[in-house]
Amino acid sequence: MKIIVADDSALLREGIIGLVERQGHDVLASAEDAPGLVSVTASAIAAGTIPDVVIADVRMPPGMATDGLDAAVDLRETYPELGIMILSQYVAPAYASRFLTGGVGGFGYLLKDRVAKVGDFMRSLTVVASGGIIIDPEVAGQLAQARSGPLDSLTPRERDVLALMAEGLSNSQISAKLYLSAGAVSKYVASVFLKLGLPVGEENRRVRAVLAYLTASRS
After folding, report:
1. CB 212 within 8 A of CB 196
2. H/E element holding 57?
3. How far apart are CA 137 and CA 146, in angstroms?
4. For residues 26 and 49, what is the distance between their CA atoms, to the nearest angstrom?
5. Segment 32-78, tens digit of pLDDT
6. Which of 81, 83, 80 is nearest to 55 (CA)?
7. 129-162 as b/e, with b when 16 or more CB fall inside 10 Å?
8. What is the pTM of this model?
9. How far is C-alpha 26 from the geometric centre of its chain's CA atoms?
10. Element (DSSP H or E) covering residue 116
11. Closest CA to 154 of 145, 162, 146
């Protein structure tokens, strides 16, 4: 993967760079503030290299408010194919929803304190780089607090399965998490697709189901 890293903490920024490079990936550039993030990303793309994933914090200079997210939103609007991974201590569900309603690139939102394993983090980057969506459960919960519409028809277990799909889990991982057989999970997933109006042959059904789950509160 080709990655850009933006975080105002030098230790964390260099730590992420070292981590992804040890895994064999290429860090195109790094930034310590929001304007720098926009600048290095635009420069890389102008030079003919589109990053697979841009990793950004929420609170960054110069304002130390939502500057990092503002920069990421601007980049996504300019380059819809760009994969964005928000890695932060803060939950900003309103901003997350903006990524879910536009663009074709992948999107992730992880909380720093809840990333417990390097392997899980790298898997999350892979999901985003491939155009998928992966959301920390706490972020997903805030996004879907007022679930409504088509989701009303889902059973509690189907909602459990869909919530884990939003975390980027595969059917086999959901099976292990919920102590269900692989066949049972497949049936729940198929039922979710059916109730959300995503028939066989629908492109990117899994991503579209997750989008329905995460954006239902906006309907």
Report:
1. yes
2. none
3. 15
4. 11
5. 999 999 999 999 999 999 999 999 999 999 998 889 989 998 998 89
6. 83
7. bebbbbbbeebbebbbeebeebbeebeeebbbbb
8. 0.70
9. 20
10. none
11. 162
